[in-house]
């Protein structure tokens, strides 16, 4: 331990007064007497970057998180000088910088304070490692709330908490455990019903203190690197989240099958066991698309090998599974077994691709295969090599997805559970130690895997899943939340983690349904499936050492509940796929916590359980045993109970009774929800019609439907179909206008339009302004079967003259 007296310890240091100000295009540099420079860059009117150095010059500007393909631009930028402050004004905000000490305050155009430095930027020299511990403190206002930060297993509102960002293998983690697997140094502040965001793009170990240590201060700091953060102004939380997601990037459309149900276990082997599992799904008619091979498929846990005793002919097996609609996903870990007879090891050794200790030897650590070396994925040449390794798995054998695990990176039997800090990394030509590269290691592995799978799966789309991730990883990969536990508390955690990941730009995420460690009761499993089908990634996984965790490991009632909810997910596939399209195009989170849905309503600021699945389906899981229903908050607006179709007015807390085979689900009035017929796997059937479930409203509502070939890249060439439905309901008539874009032609050509809550009996139908014979289209009391290409569908009550 180094004590203050041994060194010339200066403690916290602060910027002195500004001596010089200089503007270069969209950036303004403020230089102080003690060599601090603050560079403010205006990327958009509501997106400002703050970068500080204490050396009098900036080091190379490099970030793995920022998506360089995204465009930015502002409309207005004006720098003015006052007596005590400099002022930067854009079309959205006014940023004041104090001449005396560089403290920053940001206001909206009406002069309301949005975010204000307390001490602001300060630092402590790091004598041990060099560089600085960089710190920032902001004022936390009365009633201010904090959200986001990735996979944190804490209450959704982080006010009063301190969290740490250091990717960590946390087997059987618990509520409030810190740190976890992922690192997303992005939070959303909400004050006076106005939202803003902070993204602290620094890959060193970072901490955020949300009014925990001191009630009126929120601070964040890093053990090295630069104070480098982005400020995003809302005032709508939606704008903060979409801007953040735009900044750090969006994924491509996933193949639709990845939105189906996945079954996993550590591990299914040999081949006959895998087939027994997949056949059972078909026999019980529980839809399923993904089947996983965990580490035991390999030869002694060597990546890119097969255990030929368990899997004598993987290519044939994968093909047979594919014939039955199953896509095979295999695990690949970063640890490469030290074995001079193993080709991957030999290649990496020859090419000098493994991470090294500071003094030269390769970094050695134990993982599943025993002693391993680890590729340095922060080296572009290594990533390229790694990508090439997937040829056999993907192109030859036909594996459809790759699951990257243990990439925090996890090391066994060492106190820190990871690499020693002196390990060297290339960091894309910015050489550094593990202190800086640790948090990004998993993302670079997933990125290299993505490049490889994409190359060899082409013209189909790749599918990657990762355990560790840093901001921006969503461009390459989906994720899951690691080794959770089969407990009711973990069901609560899973619900929060998925909502939080969604508003942290990484929406394609799921939990191990039923829990990884320990054994769920049938009831817990049922409740977890009921929530899990509403998570963007939906997979049952378990450690396998506590018994079975397939739906049929439980009683008949649980099997029925599983089937019912997985079928519901498959019906909702077009709705889910459309949610994905909104995420891919506009960065819109797929799950929306209540506070995101209605930040004006302060009742939502501390809600944790209820969330919006997409824009129009409200879900509230049952999180306790023996429940006959639950109390919940129904947000403002009017809703239909999905099970009873009862219409109900929101903005209040209420008791909702539900049977064991239900959870509270509400549909927003006016919504048009597209449904596919039930399939056992994506693409099983070509259908002649799809249904539109229409929930009557007196007034207007917009809904959308996105479709394409469900795989491949033709959608980038305009071969997609995007319909916008405008619903308009009156007392005795309803109009649905459809606006279609894109060149994709769907197989089906009919819509089965089902109306709920219609206050009149259908007496008249007009399609594109022409009256049609009722008996040609009316197929049920409130049900029409119509050609899908209408632009206007009008229905009216009997006897209503138009
Ligand atoms: C890790 C993963 C888990 C996997 C196991 C064996 O614990 O988190 O999902 O099953 O390793 O590969």
UniProtKB/TrEMBL annotation:
Q: Which GO terms describe its molecular function?
A: carbohydrate binding; hydrolase activity, hydrolyzing O-glycosyl compounds
Q: Where is the DUF5110 domain?
A: 689-757
Query: Which CDD domains does UniProt cross-reference here?
Result: GH31_glucosidase_II_MalA (cd06604), GH31_N (cd14752)
Q: Does the keyword Hydrolase apply?
A: yes
Where in the numbering of this chain does the Glycoside hydrolase family 31 N-terminal domain appear?
38-209
Which keywords label this protein? Glycosidase, Hydrolase
Pfam families recorded: DUF5110, Gal_mutarotas_2, Glyco_hydro_31_2nd, Glyco_hydro_31_3rd
Q: Which domain of life is it from?
A: Bacteria
Q: Which Gene3D superfamilies has this protein been placed in?
A: Glycosidases, glycosyl hydrolase (family 31), Golgi alpha-mannosidase II
Task: Give every Glycosyl hydrolase family 31 C-terminal domain span.
Answer: 587-673
Residue intervals of the Glycoside hydrolase family 31 TIM barrel domain? 251-579
Q: Give the family per the record.
A: Belongs to the glycosyl hydrolase 31 family.
- The name this protein carries in UniProt is Glycosyl hydrolase
């Amino acid at each position: 331990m180094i004590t203050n007296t041994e060194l010339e310890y200066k403690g916290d240091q602060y910027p002195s007064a500004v001596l010089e100000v200089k503007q270069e295009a969209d950036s303004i540099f403020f230089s102080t007497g003690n060599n601090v420079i603050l560079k403010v860059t205006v990327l958009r009117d509501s997106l400002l970057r703050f970068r500080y150095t204490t050396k009098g010059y900036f080091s190379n500007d490099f970030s793995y998180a920022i998506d360089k393909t995204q465009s930015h631009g502002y409309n207005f930028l004006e720098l003015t000088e006052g007596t005590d402050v400099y002022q930067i004004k854009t079309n959205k905000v006014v940023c004041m910088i104090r001449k005396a000490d560089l403290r920053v305050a940001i206001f909206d155009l009406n002069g309301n304070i949005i975010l204000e430095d307390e001490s602001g930027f300060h630092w402590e020299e790091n004598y041990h490692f060099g560089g600085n511990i960089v710190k920032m403190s902001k004022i936390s206002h009365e009633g201010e709330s904090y959200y986001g930060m990735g996979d944190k297993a804490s209450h959704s509102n982080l006010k009063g908490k301190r969290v740490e960002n250091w990717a960590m293998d946390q087997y059987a983690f618990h509520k409030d455990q810190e740190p976890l697997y992922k690192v997303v140094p992005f939070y959303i502040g909400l004050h006076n019903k106005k939202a803003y965001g902070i993204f602290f793009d620094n890959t060193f170990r970072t901490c955020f203190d949300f009014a925990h240590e001191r009630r009126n201060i929120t601070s964040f700091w890093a053990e090295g690197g630069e104070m480098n953060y982005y400020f995003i102004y809302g005032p709508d939380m939606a704008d903060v989240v979409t801007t953040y997601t735009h900044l750090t990037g969006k994924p491509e459309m996933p193949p639709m099958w990845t939105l189906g149900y996945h079954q996993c276990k550590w591990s299914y082997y040999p081949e006959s066991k895998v087939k027994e599992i997949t056949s059972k799904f078909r026999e019980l008619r529980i839809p399923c698309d993904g089947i996983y091979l965990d580490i035991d498929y390999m030869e002694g846990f060597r990546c890119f090998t097969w255990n030929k005793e368990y899997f004598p002919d993987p290519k044939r097996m994968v093909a047979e599974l594919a014939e039955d609609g199953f896509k095979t996903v295999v695990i690949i870990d970063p640890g490469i077994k030290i074995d001079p007879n193993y080709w991957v090891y030999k290649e990496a050794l020859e090419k000098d691709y493994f991470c090294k200790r500071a003094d030269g030897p390769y970094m050695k650590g134990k993982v599943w295969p025993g002693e391993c070396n680890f590729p340095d994925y922060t080296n572009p040449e290594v990533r390229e090599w790694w990508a090439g390794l997937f040829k056999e798995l993907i192109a030859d054998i036909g594996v459809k997805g790759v699951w990257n695990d243990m990439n925090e990176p996890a090391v066994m039997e060492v106190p820190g559970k990871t690499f020693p800090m002196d390990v060297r990394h290339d960091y894309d030509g910015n050489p550094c130690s593990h202190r800086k590269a640790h948090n990004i290691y998993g993302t670079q592995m997933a990125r290299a895997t993505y490049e490889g799978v994409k190359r060899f799966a082409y013209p189909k789309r790749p599918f990657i899943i990762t355990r560790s991730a840093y901001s921006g990883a969503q461009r390459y990969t989906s994720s899951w939340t690691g080794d959770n536990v089969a407990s009711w508390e973990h069901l609560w955690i899973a619900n929060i983690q998925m909502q939080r990941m969604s508003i942290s730009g990484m929406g394609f995420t799921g939990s191990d349904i039923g829990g990884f460690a320990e054994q769920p009761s049938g009831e817990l499993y049922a409740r977890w499936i009921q929530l899990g089908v509403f998570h963007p990634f939906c997979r049952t996984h378990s450690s396998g050492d506590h018994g079975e965790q397939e739906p049929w490991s439980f009683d008949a009632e649980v099997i029925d509940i599983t089937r019912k909810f997985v079928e519901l997910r498959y019906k909702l596939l077009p709705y889910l796929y459309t949610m994905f399209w909104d995420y891919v195009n506009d960065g819109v989170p797929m799950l929306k916590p209540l506070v995101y849905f209605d930040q004006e309503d302060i009742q939502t600021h501390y809600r944790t359980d209820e969330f919006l699945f997409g824009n129009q389906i409200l879900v509230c899981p049952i999180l306790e045993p023996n429940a006959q229903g639950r109390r919940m908050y129904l947000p403002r607006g009017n809703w239909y109970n999905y099970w009873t179709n009862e219409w109900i007015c929101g903005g209040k807390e209420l008791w909702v009774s539900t049977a064991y085979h239900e959870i509270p689900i509400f549909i927003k009035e006016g919504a048009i929800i597209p449904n596919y017929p039930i399939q056992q796997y994506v693409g099983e059937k070509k259908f002649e019609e799809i249904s539109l479930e229409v929930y009557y409203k007196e007034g207007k509502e917009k809904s959308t439907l996105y479709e394409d070939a469900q795989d491949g890249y033709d959608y980038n060439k305009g071969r997609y179909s995007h319909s916008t439905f405008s619903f308009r309901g009156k007392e005795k008539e309803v109009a649905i206008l459809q606006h279609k874009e894109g060149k994709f032609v769907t197989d089906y050509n009919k819509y089965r339009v089902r109306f709920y809550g219609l206050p009149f009996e259908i007496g008249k139908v007009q399609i594109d302004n022409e009256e049609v014979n009722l008996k040609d289209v009316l197929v049920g009391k409130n049900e029409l079967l119509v050609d899908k290409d209408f632009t206007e569908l009008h229905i009216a009550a009997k006897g209503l003259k138009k």
